[in-house]
């Protein structure tokens, strides 16, 4: 299933006016042809009036000198009007006074303004500030390898995959993935299979097989976020990274970690995706509110999930948020409209997309009616290790395909 990005609607900008004919003198109510009569207030006129009174030279009931002056002024204004008209005509060449040409000019202006308006709302690609870190001893293109680096006072690990055909002459997107509670980086790498996508991927390893924000976490608030930033800095040093296309995806506790990254690091990721996310309070508090944007967000959750219930609940002494409520919070941070558009997909899957989000971003929720606390499409049975009992796996969709299709369609803006 291919996700679609909504486009914001915009009113067509007003048509720019073209220069019209130059207006002639405005007659006033006296009918003398001059409008405001200010010529009679001119000092020079008053001097001439005294002379005319002495001469007694009248023409048609008015002093002849005044008539001559008005004729002279009329000729001057007429000459100026003609000259301005010539300049206006010349300024519109080759359209001139040709109505068909003027109409074409106006229509062309409308088209140009429409293009300018559409371009003004097209997001401009931005680059995340990744910094630099130690050079990684990575695998050859088309292979994966366990790596380690120092982050804070710990040595952290992950499984790094470099896409086949990688060359330093071309920049590549980066995807960091976060396993579920009691899972491992290698296990997530194996069942998710993102190493087969055209992206530099690191399956991150949590301390004690867990991530911050959950009640059972072995790391302090901010420690796994630092690990994330340190890994990205090292990747930026080692490879040619497309810094406008940094992504994150996670399962269960890892989905909660991804939600926290979107909350705390909105300028870093273009898009994130969470599957069966465990949204404890530590994953959704103290969000950065003045970023001007939030990453695009895909949330996939099964309604038959008995470990992290679709409607929210409590576990390990802490409460977690309902999947739909979490997505609505994300939609609000992305300035989307409050009511989503719902589409029925294959099987018992409902796709909900919040429209009119910030330019370049989208928020989508896939409600999987036949899905439990597992990675949809995983035939290995390895996902959802934290479950107390075997849970149903949905094959109505393939989560890896859905996640990558969504992520790869977004850039940092």
Automatic annotation (TrEMBL):
<feature type="compositionally biased region" description="Basic and acidic residues">
    <location>
        <begin position="35"/>
        <end position="57"/>
    </location>
</feature>
<dbReference type="GO" id="GO:0005576">
    <property type="term" value="C:extracellular region"/>
</dbReference>
<keyword id="KW-0472">Membrane</keyword>
<keyword id="KW-1133">Transmembrane helix</keyword>
<keyword id="KW-0378">Hydrolase</keyword>
<feature type="transmembrane region" description="Helical">
    <location>
        <begin position="75"/>
        <end position="92"/>
    </location>
</feature>
<feature type="region of interest" description="Disordered">
    <location>
        <begin position="1"/>
        <end position="65"/>
    </location>
</feature>
<dbReference type="GO" id="GO:0045493">
    <property type="term" value="P:xylan catabolic process"/>
</dbReference>
<dbReference type="InterPro" id="IPR029058">
    <property type="entry name" value="AB_hydrolase_fold"/>
</dbReference>
<dbReference type="Pfam" id="PF00326">
    <property type="entry name" value="Peptidase_S9"/>
</dbReference>
<keyword id="KW-0119">Carbohydrate metabolism</keyword>
<dbReference type="InterPro" id="IPR001375">
    <property type="entry name" value="Peptidase_S9_cat"/>
</dbReference>
<keyword id="KW-0812">Transmembrane</keyword>
<keyword id="KW-0732">Signal</keyword>
<dbReference type="GO" id="GO:0006508">
    <property type="term" value="P:proteolysis"/>
</dbReference>
<keyword id="KW-0624">Polysaccharide degradation</keyword>
<dbReference type="GO" id="GO:0030600">
    <property type="term" value="F:feruloyl esterase activity"/>
</dbReference>
<keyword id="KW-0964">Secreted</keyword>
<keyword id="KW-0858">Xylan degradation</keyword>
<protein>
    <submittedName>
        <fullName>Prolyl oligopeptidase family serine peptidase</fullName>
    </submittedName>
</protein>
<dbReference type="InterPro" id="IPR043595">
    <property type="entry name" value="FaeB/C/D"/>
</dbReference>
<feature type="domain" description="Peptidase S9 prolyl oligopeptidase catalytic">
    <location>
        <begin position="206"/>
        <end position="279"/>
    </location>
</feature>
<dbReference type="GO" id="GO:0008236">
    <property type="term" value="F:serine-type peptidase activity"/>
</dbReference>
């Amino acid at each position: 299933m291919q996700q679609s990005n909504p486009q914001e609607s915009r009113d067509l900008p007003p048509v720019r006016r073209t220069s019209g004919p130059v207006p002639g003198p405005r007659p006033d109510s006296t009918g003398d042809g001059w409008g405001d009569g200010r010529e009679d207030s001119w000092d020079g006129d008053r001097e001439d009036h005294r002379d005319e009174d002495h001469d007694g030279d009248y023409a048609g009931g008015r002093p002849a000198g005044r008539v001559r002056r008005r004729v002279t002024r009329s000729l001057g204004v007429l000459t100026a009007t003609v000259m301005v008209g010539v300049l206006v005509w010349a300024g519109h060449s080759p359209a001139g006074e040709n109505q068909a040409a003027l109409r074409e000019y106006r229509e062309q202006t409308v088209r140009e303004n429409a293009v300018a308006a559409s371009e003004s709302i097209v997001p401009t690609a931005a680059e995340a500030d990744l910094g630099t870190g130690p050079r990684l001893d990575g695998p050859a293109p088309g292979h994966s390898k366990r790596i380690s680096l120092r982050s804070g006072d710990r040595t952290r690990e992950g499984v790094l995959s470099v896409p086949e055909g990688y060359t330093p002459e071309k920049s590549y997107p980066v995807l960091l993935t976060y396993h579920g509670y009691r899972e491992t980086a290698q296990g997530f790498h194996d069942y998710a299979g993102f190493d087969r996508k055209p992206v530099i991927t690191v399956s991150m390893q949590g301390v004690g097989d867990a991530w911050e924000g959950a009640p059972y976490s072995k790391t302090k608030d901010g420690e796994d976020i630092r690990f994330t930033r340190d890994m990205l800095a090292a990747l930026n040093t080692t490879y040619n990274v497309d810094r406008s296309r940094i992504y994150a995806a996670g399962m269960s506790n890892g989905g909660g970690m991804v939600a926290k990254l979107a909350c705390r690091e909105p300028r870093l990721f273009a898009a994130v995706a969470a599957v069966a996310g465990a949204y404890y309070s530590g994953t959704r508090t103290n969000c950065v509110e003045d970023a001007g944007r939030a990453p695009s967000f895909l949330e996939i959750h099964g309604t038959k999930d008995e470990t992290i219930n679709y409607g929210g609940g409590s576990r390990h002494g802490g409460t977690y948020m309902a999947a739909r409520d979490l997505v609505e919070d994300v939609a609000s941070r992305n300035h989307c409209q409050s009511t989503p558009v719902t589409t029925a997909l294959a099987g018992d899957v409902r796709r909900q997309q919040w429209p009119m989000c910030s330019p370049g971003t989208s928020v989508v929720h896939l409600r999987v009616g036949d899905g439990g606390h597992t990675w949809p499409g995983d035939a290995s049975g390895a996902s959802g290790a934290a479950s107390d009992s075997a849970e149903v796996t949905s094959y109505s969709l393939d989560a890896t395909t859905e996640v990558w299709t969504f992520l790869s369609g977004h850039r940092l803006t």
